[in-house]
């Protein structure tokens, strides 16, 4: 029986000494979607991911991949690929040799090594010593290793770390592609905006607890609604006129008047009708960064 969920965490608790690293955490990841696992440093993300692949033994709760505990999977490498840490590779080996050794140990055919090298865009670097790899190349190599068994579930701990903008764009397309093939992907980060273009849903955690699990579009709304910002030489006068016309003026700071809503046209019209010159007029969309801060303020971490 395969489970409806790629990943299912239910009431997971893990304590180190007196510290509750994970505290009654529950969330799910569906096949065909990329879920961001997001929270400040020390929120319990890595501990949760390590529990999912059996590196950490939970004190309580259930951590299932493909419907069962990791240790009960008949074909672990073919079920879930995890990138939990980089740098555990023999520095004198080439990336290709490293992957060949992993493939041999797992009984995976050699040709699969070339497929994953191509898949992650390691290219020429595959033949070079891992000791000379940049952080971004190490991330790609670790991803290649996780993909060797062609797993339907991927779990990546901070994969955007060390990637340049080009690499982040590549990662985004790559993860979207995996989800489009029906795979379930869990990807952690300590910021929401970095993942905004990669994920369908976000699981936001703080102090080892779930803050919220929501589609990205809903989270965006938590950042507040859109606003119109208009920059003029007479901001106070314009603010008063806008209020008279029924606009909700949120702020008047320096030359900029901020108005609730996205009706730039009617805001601009008020200025025009009263002969106020407009230097700048724009609509600001609700910000994910703002949403993230509203959710997580006071939830960091170093405990
Ligand atoms: N093996 C361990 N022994 C003791 N404490 C640990 C251990 N692993 C994690 N912790 C503690 O558990 C808490 C959660 O750590 P975890 O690494 O899961 O957080 P994180 O969300 O991954 O943080 P970051 O964003 O910094 O990677 C931290 O306070 C950390 O110090
Ligand atoms: Mg971590």
UniProtKB/TrEMBL annotation:
Domain of life from the UniProt record: Bacteria
Keywords: ATP-binding, Nucleotide-binding, Transport
Domain annotation ABC transporter: ranges: 7-232
A Pfam family of this chain: ABC_tran
InterPro entries: AAA+_ATPase, ABC_transporter-like_ATP-bd, ABC_transporter-like_CS, P-loop_NTPase
A GO MF label: ATP binding
Family to which this protein belongs: Belongs to the ABC transporter superfamily.
PANTHER family reported for this sequence: ABC TRANSPORTER, ATP-BINDING PROTEIN
UniProt name for this protein: ATP-binding cassette domain-containing protein
UniProt organism field: Micromonospora costi
């Amino acid at each position: 029986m395969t489970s409806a969920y790629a990943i299912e965490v239910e009431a997971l608790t893990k304590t180190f000494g007196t510290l509750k690293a994970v505290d009654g955490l529950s969330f799910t990841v569906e096949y065909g979607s990329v879920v961001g696992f997001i929270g400040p440093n020390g929120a319990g993300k890595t501990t949760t991911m390590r529990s999912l692949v059996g590196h950490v033994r939970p004190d309580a709760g259930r951590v299932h991949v493909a419907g069962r505990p990791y240790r009960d999977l008949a074909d672990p490498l073919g079920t879930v690929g995890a990138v939990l840490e980089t740098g555990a590779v023999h520095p004198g080996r080439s990336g290709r040799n490293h992957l060949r050794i992993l493939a041999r140990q797992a009984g995976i055919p050699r040709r699969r090594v070339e497929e994953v090298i191509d898949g992650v865009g390691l290219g020429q670097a595959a033949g070079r010593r891992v000791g000379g790899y940049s952080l971004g190349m190490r991330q790609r190599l670790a991803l290649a290793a996780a993909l060797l068994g062609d797993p339907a579930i991927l779990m990546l701990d901070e994969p955007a770390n060390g990637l340049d903008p080009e690499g982040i764009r590549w990662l985004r397309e790559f993860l979207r592609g995996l989800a489009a093939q029906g795979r379930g992907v869990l990807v952690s980060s300590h910021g929401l905006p970095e993942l905004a273009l990669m994920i369908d849903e976000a699981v936001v955690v703080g102090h080892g607890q779930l803050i919220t699990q929501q589609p990205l579009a809903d989270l965006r709304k938590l950042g507040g609604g859109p606003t119109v910002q208009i920059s003029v030489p007479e901001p106070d006068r314009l603010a008063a006129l806008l209020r008279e016309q029924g606009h909700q003026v949120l702020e008047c700071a320096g030359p900029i008047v901020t108005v609730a809503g996205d009706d730039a046209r009617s805001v601009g019209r008020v200025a025009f009708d009263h002969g106020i010159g407009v230097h700048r007029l724009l609509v600001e969309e609700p910000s994910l960064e703002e949403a993230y801060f509203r959710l997580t303020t006071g939830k960091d971490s170093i405990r």
